[in-house]
Specification:
With 108 residues, this protein is mainly alpha-helical. Helices cover 62% and strands 0% of the residues.
Length: 108
C-alpha cells in the first residue's frame, strides 16, 4: 500500500482534530501518519518522519483501511501478561498492604 486514498473533507478534518487534540499520543501519531499518507507522502518518508519500521507504517494503513477511526486506537488485550502466579500475586498484595508507604521495601 503506497498511500491512503479517498478521504472525505469531513474525515480529513476529524483526523486533523485527532492529531492536534487527542489525549493519547499513539492516536495523535497515527492520525498524523494517515493525513500525511493521504497528502502523498510515501512509506519511506513516513518511516523517516516517525522513526518506525515499514511494517508498522503498513500496519497502521491497513488498520485505517479496515476500521477507519477505530483503527487509530490500540486493541483491547494488548496489556502485558503477568509473569507471576496467582500465589505470587497474593503474596505481593499482602506485602503492599503491610507496607503501603514503603513500596521500596516490597520491591527488595
Amino acid at each position: 500500500m503506497k498511500f491512503i486514498k479517498d478521504l472525505s473533507w469531513e474525515t480529513e478534518k476529524v483526523l486533523e482534530r485527532f492529531y492536534k487534540d487527542s489525549k493519547h499520543s499513539q492516536v495523535r501519531q497515527r492520525a498524523h501518519c494517515i493525513l500525511l499518507s493521504f497528502r502523498g507522502f510515501k512509506i519511506q518518508q513516513l518511516m523517516a518522519i516517525f522513526a518506525l519500521s515499514r511494517q508498522t507504517i503498513h500496519y497502521w494503513q491497513v488498520r485505517w483501511e479496515d476500521k477507519k477511526l477505530v483503527g487509530l486506537y490500540d486493541q483491547m488485550g494488548r496489556i502485558r501478561k503477568t509473569k507471576l502466579t496467582s500465589e505470587q500475586q497474593k503474596k505481593v498484595n499482602e506485602w503492599v498492604k503491610a507496607e503501603p508507604k514503603s513500596l521500596k521495601k516490597v520491591i527488595n
